[in-house]
Design goal:
Elements (H helix, E strand, L loop, with lengths): L10 E3 L8 E3 L2 E4 L7 E6 L10 E11 H4 L3 E7 L2 E9 L2 E5 L4 E4 L4 E5 L4 E7 L5 E10 L10 E5 L4 E3 L2 E7 L1 E2 L2 E2 L8 E8 L4 E5 L5 E8 L2 E3 L2 E3 L4 E4 L5 E6 L3 E8 L6 E4 L2 E3 L2 H17 L31
Antiparallel strand pairs: 1-26, 2-23, 3-4, 4-5, 5-12, 6-11, 7-10, 7-12, 8-9, 8-11, 10-13, 14-15, 15-18, 16-17, 18-25, 19-24, 20-23, 20-25, 21-22, 21-24, 26-27
Protein name: Pirin
Keywords: Iron, Metal-binding
Cofactor: Fe cation
């Protein structure tokens, strides 16, 4: 998924933990398409820019595709990150410059490593009438941020834990482990809870965690959150408890604090203004000439690519 804001702000991703957990409210952002499909963005924001290496959380739907136009994101670039696509309903077609052509379906994770540079497109399929899911980004750490681009697909097996249904798509939880490769220790899991259930999970105490509520009302870490909210909990505890006030579904995200200074602007993660400016120049050159470069050879089916916005008039500053 692309950040389609025509005037994206500098996104400062910091890794310093907060003293207390908090509920993060989403803001609405138009994704694009004929009628601008809205997404709810909870990360990054001023109150919290990173959860482990997770740096971007977009939550959308359930959307009637006949009203919103669905997801229509032509070819666009990424650097220095991994994208994680997870659906609850619908289907999305993915193509990228590694040659990968795949579909995102409910209960199946697609992870794309941008590394030194990649470009991809995402379109909801013609048979999709309702679209509902999340798009997540993970920052690559300094030693690995120029890694080879790549693509992985994995279908986790659901397990029942104390009455909750858990799908572990990244990392390990509740005796389940994902084979999908990440460059820092991470956790990603979908958890469905019936009303009234209190679920206690053993988690890595070195991880900070985020609980994104897809539907329902959930109490965790001493706070209560509803649809679209993201609860952040700092590192330090080896147990995480969730109590469902209603039937609920959440995503549990986690990871070790990144501990690095980065700059995130538009679809790029880098370490300096000059680096981001160079990525932008290389993308504009690639989309104009269609010559393979940092972002690879464009698929022959691409008829359109997204132009990069103009950089702000002030220098982007790395922070952390």
């Amino acid at each position: 998924m692309s950040n389609l804001d025509p005037a994206p702000e500098e996104l400062t991703c910091t890794s310093a933990p907060n003293a207390h957990g908090r509920v993060l409210e989403p803001r609405s952002v138009p994704l694009g398409g004929p009628r601008a499909m809205p997404v709810r963005r909870t990360l990054p924001q001023r109150a919290q820019s990173l959860i482990g290496a997770w740096c971007f959380v977009d939550h959308y739907g359930p959307d009637d595709v006949s009203v919103t136009g669905g997801m229509r994101v032509p070819g666009h670039p990424h650097t220095g990150l991994q994208t994680v696509s997870w659906l609850f309903r619908g289907e999305i077609e993915h193509r990228d410059t590694t040659g990968a052509h795949a579909f995102v379906r409910p209960g199946e994770v697609n992870l794309m490593t941008a590394g030194r540079g990649i470009a991809h497109s995402e379109f909801s399929t013609p048979g999709t009438t309702t679209l509902h899911g999340v798009q997540l980004w993970v920052t690559l750490p300094e030693p690995d941020r120029f890694a080879e681009p790549g693509f992985e697909h994995y279908t986790p097996t659901p397990v029942d834990v104390e009455g909750a249904r858990i799908l572990v798509f990244l990392g390990s939880l509740a005796g389940q482990a994902s084979p999908v490769h990440t460059f820092t220790p991470l956790l990603g899991a979908e958890i469905t809870l019936p009303a009234g259930l209190e679920l206690r999970l053993a988690v890595d105490p070195s991880f900070e965690h985020g609980v994104l509520v897809d539907r329902g009302t959930v109490e965790t870490s001493g706070v209560t959150a509803g649809d679209g909210n993201l609860v952040h909990r700092p590192a330090g505890s080896g147990a995480l408890t969730m109590r469902a006030h209603t039937d609920a579904r959440v995503l549990l995200l986690g990871g070790e604090p990144l501990g690095e200074q980065i700059v995130m602007w538009w679809n790029f993660v880098g370490r300096s203004h000059d680096e981001i400016a160079e990525y932008r120049r290389e993308w504009e050159r690639a989309r104009t000439t269609r010559e393979p470069g940092r972002f690879g050879a464009f698929p022959g089916s691409w008829e359109e690519t997204i132009p990069a916005p103009e950089l702000p008039h002030v220098r982007l500053r790395p922070r952390g």
